[in-house]
Amino acid sequence: AQLHYSVPEDREPGSPVGDLAKDLGVEVRSLVARNLRLVSEGGQRHFQVNLAAGVLLLDSRLDREVLCGQNPTCSLHLQLVMENPLQLHRVEVDVLDVNDNAPQFPKPEVVLEITEVANPGTRLPLEVAEDPDMGSNSISTYELSPSEHFALSINVRGDGVKMPEIVLEKALDREKVAVHHLTLTALDGGNPVKSGTAKVTIHVLDANDNPPVCDPPISKVHLEENVPVGTLVTKLNVTDLDEGPNGDVEYSFKISNNSPAKFTKLFSLDPRTGEIRTKAPLDYEESSAYEIAVRARDKGSPAMEGHCHLRVELIDINDNSPEIVLTSLSSPVQEDATPGTVIALIGVKDSDSGDNGQVRLHIAKELPFKLVSSFKEHFSLVTNGPLDREKASGYNITVRAVDSGSPQRATQKTFYLRIADVNDNAPNFSSPFDTAHIQENALPGTAVFSVSASDPDEGSNAKLSYSILDNGMQDIPISAYFRIDQDNGTIYTVRALDYEQDKVFQVPVEVKDAGSPALSSTAVVHVFILDENDNAPTIVYPSVPKGSAFHQTIPALAEPGYLVTKIVAVDADSGHNAWLSYQLQETAEALPFQVERRSGEIRIAQALKESEDPHRLVVEVRDNGTPSLSASVVIVISLEENSVQDFAKSLDLPKSSPKDTNLTLYLIISLVSISLVSCVMFALAVARC
């Protein structure tokens, strides 16, 4: 928005200029929170903001004549910046002229000469009075003291300046009056009226009675700025009806405070030919027009002079490139910023005028931003689509300004906009399923496996912590078996594991970032327990108390190969650790019996003698683990005189009992479990490949 105020130039510092809070439509108490601040475009600080009252105050006394000189309008441009949200308001303050300066002539006394043969109607130009005030406060009119021979005439120059001239109304007679004393008064249009005076002394001379005359007396020339030095501006057309020295004219610049000598640095005047040429580069942006006063003076005695007035108006050419001003930049910007969010406030200015000063701004079309015109020569850079820091963490934004001149002139400004991260990405495991193996009976604290996850966010949004979830699949919480390092994701055992109790664990792992709100994901680690030979074989038949022996009778006439009995043993371990072998412990004398290594059957190895005493056999059952574990049973074999017994009786096997049935069931369950574990491992290996 743009605010417009006006203030007279004579106001004291601290005077109120305008109610900002009311005109902006904001509450006074919010100005401090929104960090309302004032930015002057000119570099000088003339105003201040009272945040407590929301009022724009005058900071220093203004002098319109110092600030703007002779410009018809005098405006000071300010910028108000507010944050949360970021807004830019332009304030234009018109400095109003007051009648604080009285007219003043360049010289308090003016001496003029006029020949006595001058005809009525002869004009004597006078110096123009100065009044720094503008408008109605500037010079309004001139007055001349009463005179029998002279009257006052006022002409208006091309730039509106009133030029007084004394006009001869009645023929002069030097012999009667040689000197005339008059008073010239300049009056302004202020209220109250202020005035200034100058004494005019007119000497009546004899001789040269025709002054040089300019044709036309007031002329205008249009000239392009930046023309080469030495370019002819114009040649004055001056005539003098006299002859000889009285008609020989010399030219010179006429300098007055109302027509400053600045133009003498830019233009040269040939005193003989009256040619006016440039002698320095002309700049439209410095001044668009120059008023040149030329005095044409003859060489008569007394000399007579005429005055030529030339207005040189410059034609603007496109010689200034646009200027880009980055007023404010909000960097970084959140990646979840909604479309239309203001990113930057950009101002542009071009010192040229007309089409040469009309500027357009552009940015690359592929950027997710666009330019929105706030008001004249001010733009807002806003988001035009979604931002994603994971795809682009920042943008180099090049703003290009092009004017409408011919040929066009352009400039560009590049700035970097950083995109701030928001927690919009959940952590991801490298694999949702992992497999790990660990020996049973490993010490608590043994590392099992390390899971790894990544998060494309940054900072705290990418800081990950790991934890184990209890999924209720086991009777005992999974946290009773395993723990995880929350920083690096390494899984450790909490206690020793028993293969015979649990052969595989499903360990659900959750990874969570430190964002707000936190995001998470899960993965499952299948931990397979590797068997260790930690169980000795158990002899289930014959079942005898520890330290006792099993007694078995056989027919005395049994022949070699006769099945005496069979040792049945089991091992709670699996694989090689559960492969059992049977053997007889060596004794001092050879025994007529042998045991099958794999089946555990005890048979007669050689013919028996009828008078043999009972034989004592120690059968050892050993597994295939490392180190190997074993169990043994003592069997006492006695001969029986009866006839040959049938196989069942000789074996003396007990009848099936519920205990034997349970043992068989346990063996079947063990075999099925081992098969299932093997199938799961094979399936995981295939899926991983």
Automatic annotation (TrEMBL):
Pfam families in the cross-refs: Cadherin (PF00028), Cadherin_2 (PF08266)
Keywords from the named record: Calcium, Cell adhesion, Cell membrane, Glycoprotein, Membrane, Repeat, Signal, Transmembrane, Transmembrane helix
Entry annotated with the keyword Protease: no
Membrane topology annotation: Single-pass type I membrane protein
SMART domains: CA (SM00112)
Molecular function (Gene Ontology), one example: calcium ion binding
GO cellular component, one term: plasma membrane
Listed CDD domains: Cadherin_repeat
Family matches, as InterPro entries: Cadherin-like_dom, Cadherin-like_sf, Cadherin_CS, Cadherin_N, Protocadherin/Cadherin-CA
Keyword Membrane annotated: yes
Subcellular location: Cell membrane
Listed transmembrane segments: 663-687
Residue span(s) of domain Cadherin: 6-105, 106-214, 215-324, 325-429, 430-539, 546-656
GO BP terms, alphabetized: homophilic cell adhesion via plasma membrane adhesion molecules
UniProt function note: Potential calcium-dependent cell-adhesion protein. May be involved in the establishment and maintenance of specific neuronal connections in the brain.
Name of the featured protein: PCDGM protein
Originating organism: Columbina picui (Picui ground-dove)
